[in-house]
């Protein structure tokens, strides 16, 4: 069960990141791309699997946010990624702000990945 949940989670992570990169970079060249129906729906489907597999892993491992520090930091990193992604894809009015959001999202992803791999909140 653990390996199935882990592989589902990591696949959803990879697809979510890949789709974010495609949406941002292609959206810089062709902003109308972000208005396509599948571009609006598919990320939510992938992120639903991502969240469900994360919850499944928490139950399997009996480790939970607000109980385990590394998992709390990981959840905060994901929230930061979401907010920065919204800045990059929706909220920003200028290209500079979109790139700041994109860079911030990637930084949040890097921190989240590092904490996930090391299970250490003091990774610096």
TrEMBL record:
Keyword field contains Transmembrane: yes
InterPro entries cross-referenced by the UniProt entry: SirB (IPR007360)
UniProt KW keywords: Membrane, Transmembrane, Transmembrane helix
Transmembrane segments: 43-62, 69-91, 97-117
Organism domain of life: Bacteria
PANTHER family: PROTEIN YCHQ (PTHR39594)
Name of this chain's protein: SirB2 family protein
Record organism: Alteromonas gilva
Lineage: Bacteria, Pseudomonadati, Pseudomonadota, Gammaproteobacteria, Alteromonadales
């Amino acid at each position: 069960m653990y390996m199935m949940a882990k592989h589902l989670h990591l696949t959803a992570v990879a697809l979510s990141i890949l789709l974010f990169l495609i949406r941002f970079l292609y959206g810089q060249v062709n902003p109308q791309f972000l208005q396509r129906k599948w571009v609006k729906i598919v990320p939510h489907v992938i992120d639903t699997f991502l969240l469900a597999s994360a919850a499944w892993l928490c139950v399997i491992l009996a480790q939970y946010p607000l109980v385990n520090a590394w998992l709390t930091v990981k959840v905060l990193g994901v929230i930061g990624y979401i907010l920065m992604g919204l800045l990059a894809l929706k909220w920003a009015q200028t290209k500079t702000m979109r790139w700041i959001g994109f860079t911030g999202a990637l930084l949040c992803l890097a921190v989240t990945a590092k904490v996930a791999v090391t299970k250490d909140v003091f990774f610096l």
